[in-house]
Amino acid sequence: MRSKIVAGNWKMNKNLEETEALLATLSAKLPDTQAEVMVAPAYVNLSAAVRCLEASKIEVIAQNMHFAESGAYTGEISADMLLNIDVNTVIIGHSERRAYFAETDGILAKKVQTALDHEIRVMFCFGEELEDRKANNHFNVVENQLRNALFSLEAASWSRIILAYEPVWAIGTGETASPEQAQEMHEFIRKTIAEAYDQTIANNVSILYGGSVKPGNAPEIFGKPDVDGGLIGGASLVADDFIAIIKAI
Ligand code: PEP
Hints:
The protein has 249 residues and is of the alpha/beta class. It has eleven helices and eight strands. It has helices spanning 16-29, 46-52, 79-84, 95-100, 105-117, 130-134, 138-150, 179-196, 199-204, 218-222, 239-247; strands at 5-9, 36-40, 59-60, 89-92, 121-126, 161-165, 207-210, 229-232. Strand 2, helix 2 (46-52) and strand 3 form a beta-alpha-beta unit. Helix 1 (16-29) runs parallel beside helix 11 (239-247) and helix 5 (105-117) crosses helix 7. The longest helix has 18 residues, at 179-196. The protein starts with a strand and ends with a helix.
């Protein structure tokens, strides 16, 4: 059985005090839910976030990590460093990392492998640009992103993979894929995994939707059978909005 998941990607927002305050509010208001709830604060606040959430069901996850074990990579963070502060899940492949930090499928494949070698769970993000969708090339783009970064993994590794389909045109833009568009793509992703591996792996992987999910549109998007939750950017920075989205799952 795959998990339902709601994750908040805080990106480069919230200083230490703001991080602690938001986490305290989220912990206090967290509804009773079967879903896994995760937040990804900025690196410098991860340790503090882990401490704040010690008694909470909310998991602290990282926004990124490097593929190397250690060494001369100024400004980067390793898998061991995350494990050392009790962070066991990492987002890899966010479209902002791809676009602004030139992270290619090849680099992402290495990051995924390093995370898995350390038994860190990977939330792998991918999705097409607006031009791809306009050219009706979105299925090809998504299939290639998955193939290039994930389809060399051994089957057993898939128990530590969470997928987040995030059409780039819907991230931070207020534009959302319609629930039907999200379902169509999620179904395609599951079919593609079933073909590359098998139906059990495809059925067991959680596929989140990300792209301007808000309290108002979450129930309909989460109501689709192949949508197992959401990766939330902007709305995860506002406690009441994030809580309302968690309630929608
Ligand atoms: C994201 O950055 O992963 C995201 C989905 O952002 P937003 O919800 O703000 O579109």
